[in-house]
């Protein structure tokens, strides 16, 4: 058979795991037609992966499939790793460089020749008829130009391995072959002979011989036969038609017969394909096999194939057996794991039954150490712990439930219980009867009887008496039995009921049969005939005689009641008393028994019918007298001597009935009931409305149902409160602070409401005065004629002894808070020092504490009371804020001053104030305010002109506009924010409050929209096609955003000057921006102008004159200042003369004409004409 490449067997594994990092992507690599360098890579290789022989192509790899080579390349960014045989991330530019000859040109004039590659020793070029053909030598060989062939050589050193010279100057012996581990060199007289190992062996240099090993990886099969028996057959590491036979702990490779491969599980060679290592199917298994040959089945160890002529006949092994190929026979084995069962019966007693490892309907029978397989009866499976077959499902191996175990079974057949070894199932008429072995014994299935054993561990005591003398010994596991040994045989004896075995006495004594404790002291200090309950058996009575216990049994069907000291009908297994319905069965007529669960009742038997009779309320059955007496109906204890030394008329609490009380009279006890629907309030010795079953006091809203008006009851829990009935409604009224309610007197009396102590003598011997209350600072006591009158301070005030009155203060710490309203305006609302349902109203700088409506606390920020918890001072959540509130009631939102809650049908509806406004508590309306600080902005418009725009302090996308001193909030257009200095909204981000840059200000804006320049007040932007156009105001003016026009203004300070002429007479005034500018006042309006070039405003005559605008210096003055042309750019009309009030300037089409008023008239700018006036003083008449 042809020797395989060392990559052959693992081909599929390598191809699956060693391909490029992306296994689902193969990138083909194109090889030139004349490049034969990869062809020799796969010579002799059926499957494998190799790097490209050219190191410069470090990203190309070769796959071999049955000696055919295919080139692939790694994905971009990957290179092929020669060690890992897979693509890994790498840079192709880092591949080794080589100088590649131009082989086409080199071979162009050559008809036939071989040439070595100048840089790669394992490559060569074959020039044929001018064509260049490249080749690579096989792995482990390099090109020899001298020999014109590929010879063994080292690819790293490019040195030829001259094997014929390997033995020169060496002693005789063997050497490893340098490139082939399945060969070796023999040296004899300096001559070299190449020898091959047997198939399946590799040369071991240490042992200097061939040993079994993997011929692909060259790894020897080391120590695989260590500790294995001779003749053991193991699989060869890589040749499936070979096997390793263990002899003396050594591995020896042996071939299977021709056409066969090793079946590892069967340890036998069977027909198969040595190339694919697959077994032949049964149909072709016997072709070319000798007649009568027997092979293991290829897929099942419970079958084998017999060859009859060329046909294979499949035969099954008997149940529970598997085919043993070496012997050609079936043997006992595990049909799941195909393992033989060989030594399981060694050391086992004859007739031992063992579990079959894979088939529950079979069992292993041991006899003389031999293993045989036996079947259970039909419909039964082995119960291993019982070594017995029991009814069960042979497919699922589940035992039948008890109720089906006897289906189809004959009478008297018994089976072990499925789970309890001390029980067994007896069959009778197809029904199952569960029966229990005596304590201290277990059921033995083989003998179908109970035998001595531990019923907890199921251990049998077969040899407990072996080697013992005759006598009594304790039972190993139970104390209420003992073992009597006679002639080595064990006889089991049971102690009497309620007794346990005591070894020292060799007999049984009274004791706890569960804990095995002797009841030594159960009768200590007890008088004769005292009855005591048995410590573990409830149907037994311990009768004490001379302080020693004796046992007496209750009548059949009765158990001892330790409380009543009587036997009463009950279950001796559960120790539970029988219910009343069955208590009188089989009992004498007239028999009386305590009620099984209620000591206030007893049962009298009338035949088998029970007659339950009830003791009077508050009474229990007295057992010895069988009569009813006052007692605790919960503990069943009789009440005795509770009224001794008590005064007549004293009321005591009944221990178990709150609707009754104990009345003492002459030391005798009488049980009396409270009025219907009432229970005793012990602390006040008074009956009050309540639930007789739960002993809970009636809630206040139900205390007065059915009661007459003006009836009073003490409060259920507060001694300082009482409930007054009015119209069958309970009205809780509180005693003044520092007083408590007296139920008997039905009035409030001085006292400590915390301890309920009454201060009956606090004013005794005192003069008439106001004194502090001993326990509270919110009240005081007025002593008058030795009587105490309790007075309450006003809410939120504390008593000040030095003043003899109450003042505002902290009612928790009793600290005064003086001067709270000093400096506060009238109507100011302040928080109370400690009570959140109070607030301080300042009037004339005096503090007046007032209380919020019930269920409300002060919202300081909104200065209004809102629903809240008076105890925790937390506002109610929105969900419950409007419970019990009128519709349309408005409250501030508990967390957001820009929102409010409006009530509708008990539900709170959250509403938002308009943007920039917050809720004003007292008016219940939204007003302009800072939504961040919750401060109102009411006064910001005082003294401001109408239309004045002010920046909103928390919303830059909104602004405040003033009208008649009132502020209102307005929103900027979308995508704009207020420019405060310009009093105009401009493009910007309302969230970040950042202005848009100039180049973006007109994006999406309509044509003609005008905005002030963000940095220069003398310029503005006009939008056209979403692009800004920069325009400049004329000199002396700046842009006013509100009017969208240029008006008189200082371009340096950006200060508007259009109101500079208000209240001034017509004329010229200097412009603050420069001396080349001036302001012209006309009828109170202001206009800015610039002097002609080379002129400045004359500071004295206020006319333009020659001068230097840079330093404001005048040129020499002429005799009469010129009149400038003020009409340039002005509409036609009359205008004020800059110097003379009786003259005026008339403008016509920009031309200037100086005109004079008539005598005794002056020019008045308001009417644009002349009117009577003094031409010297310029005062109108």
Automatic annotation (TrEMBL):
One of its GO terms (molecular function) is chitin binding. GO terms for cellular component: external encapsulating structure; extracellular region. Keywords: Chitin-binding, Disulfide bond, Glycoprotein, Repeat, Signal. InterPro entries: Chitin-bd_dom (IPR002557), Chitin-bd_dom_sf (IPR036508), Chitin_bind-dev_reg (IPR051940). Residues 39-97, 104-160, 164-220, 222-279, 283-340, 342-399, 403-460, 462-518, 520-577, 581-638, 640-697, 701-758, 760-816, 818-875, 879-936, 938-995, 999-1056, 1058-1114, 1124-1180 form the Chitin-binding type-2 domain. The keyword Lipoprotein does not apply. This is Chitin-binding type-2 domain-containing protein. It comes from Anopheles gambiae (African malaria mosquito).
